[in-house]
Amino acid sequence: MASLAALPLAGCQSGEKAKLRYRVIASFEVDGHLFEASTVMEIHYARVTNSLIGAGGATRLYGEALIADLDGRGTVYILPIQHPRNASLTQVYEYGVLSTLGIDSSIGSLTDADFSTLRNAKGRKPFRLHKTTRLPAFIFFSDEQDPKTIFELQPSEVGQYVSGARFLSLDIEITDAPVTRKLRQRLPWLNAVNVAEIFPRDPRGARRPNSELPLSHMITRARFFGDGSR
Fold first, then answer.
1. How would you class 209 by CB atoms within 10 Å of its CB: exposed for 0-12, middle for 13-18, buried for 19 or more?
2. What three-state secondary structure class fits 131?
3. Cα→Cα distances 108→152, 187, 214, Å
4. CA 168 to CA 61: how far, in whole Å?
5. What is the mean pLDDT of each run of 10 residues along the chain (230 residues)?
6. pLDDT at 113
7. How many C-beta atoms lie closer than 10 Å to residue 33's C-beta?
8. Nearest CA to 187 among 36, 72, 66, 90?
9. Spatial distance between the Cα atoms of 170 and 126, rounded to a whole number of angstroms
10. What is the pLDDT of residue 8?
């Protein structure tokens, strides 16, 4: 039956639950030296059995984008979403944590054994989103003080914007460290309220489908955080 991954956990879940605290670790090479940046996140999974549309699953993600300040030369941000080619922005860790731990079930069909795997997870593993090489979205700002200068870059392009840097890998490590809360201080405009749209947008009346929009024209401030931290 349908997965309810986007629904809040409160209200309709019953049955099995699991909570997982993990560190997202991005590894780079900077002038031949290893550089690692990380952020701690937490994800909750629950089985839903009394939904109006039947059985399924629900998730809640806590945390924020990873800040990779590469030796003072430039900062790459890794968002808690993915941007598949010619598609909308979608969840990434909610699915990626499962496949990283070797769980093939979908969020809506997690078994008792899958919940046990989540609760007993340990160690550090390479991030895997299903059986693909897709990663969360990487972004850069020409000027961090101006959110309209945001743009997406591919992991292989890091060296074009940060001299001497190269992206190596993304890992997930189980931890009991506190969930990271640094991003709002680093990017104060994330706290602004009652302001006009702060990211680039098409002129009024222009209607491009999401498949034709760059990430900069779809992003919102909420997308810098897990749904439980917005």
1. exposed
2. coil
3. 31, 35, 30
4. 25
5. 43 75 98 97 92 76 98 96 93 97 95 97 96 94 96 97 97 98 97 80 86 93 96
6. 97
7. 9
8. 66
9. 6
10. 46
